[in-house]
Amino acid sequence: MNLSRLRIIRISGGEDGATDEATLGLIPDIVSESVRHVHLSDFHSLSYTTLTRILEKPCALEGLHFHECTASESEPSDLFPLPISPKHHLTHLSLSSSASIAQWLVRPGFPLDFSNLICAEISRSSNGTVATILEGVRGTLKSLTVAGEDFDPTIVTFKYWSPFRLDDFRPIQLLRFPALTHLGIALDLPFDIVATLPAISEITNRNTIQEIIYTIQIPHLLDGEPQAAAEQSSTWPTFDAGIAALPLPHLERVEIMFLENPDDYLDPDQPGAARAAPQHLDAASFPLLSERKLLFLTTQYYQ
């Protein structure tokens, strides 16, 4: 198999994250010199050996991306020698619900250089180690994506979705990233959006942010419940006023993207029958942002 032009590798451990070690061991074998980005998702016991074997390959990685990965506790990294390959100068790093992986990435002598990092996704992974990585590039980082609870652990409706150990939590402080042009914030429910305003209000006119993109994973979970409807009706004007008041002279776009699964619209009581899709917001809910032509409401479907 000729993989000389392969640039991106995406491998998932599956829904249960229980991919066996033999399968994991095959990952380094397909990392050719042309590979620039490696995406690993849903590995609930990721081997340190597997990661170091990837980094030993003679390629110039630009991005490492972890989604819902957990470091193997049965394999302490300090028992293994560090890779001897030249350093990979990363421009992109993703640690989405993968806080425990960060401890490996900053080991002394580990072959990763973050000085060129321009894009970081740190969703539900803001711990002390991640803070160390970000601190080193805070003056040059251009794009940052976080979850609401990376500002404050209480910004999460589903309390059982614990993002990280609270004893190692380090809040993301936006004022420390003056070079940001893109800010992404992931939320689970619409009315959590107002709870992000205190963190965003730290932004000053020295920031160069051009776009703020919110993604809401479960926008209509509580549709039809009066309390939820009332809460949402007050949410949007409050959010509109709060964002419009930000001193951001370079701001060009405020987007709220709803991530929807079409299967959610099937009526469980009537197999095969679709229930009415929920009503979407319109610009009238955001008069201030709409007047300045900053508002974009979008939907992205997934399954």
Overall description:
This protein is 17% helix and 20% strand. The two termini are 31 Å apart. Helix 6 links the parallel strand 10 and strand 11 (253-260). The relative contact order is 0.08. It is of the alpha/beta class and 303 residues long. The protein is elongated, with a radius of gyration of 21 Å. It has 7 helices and 12 strands. The model is unreliable at 159-163 and 272-278 (pLDDT under 50). The longest helix has 19 residues, at 226-244. A 10-stranded parallel β-sheet has the order 1-2-3-5-7-8-9-10-11-12, with no helix packed on it. This is F-box domain-containing protein.
Give the topology, please.
Layout: E1 8-12, H1 21-24, E2 37-41, H2 48-55, E3 63-67, E4 88-89, E5 92-96, H3 102-105, E6 112-113, E7 119-122, H4 128-135, E8 143-147, E9 182-187, H5 197-200, E10 211-216, H6 226-244, E11 253-260, H7 287-291, E12 295-301
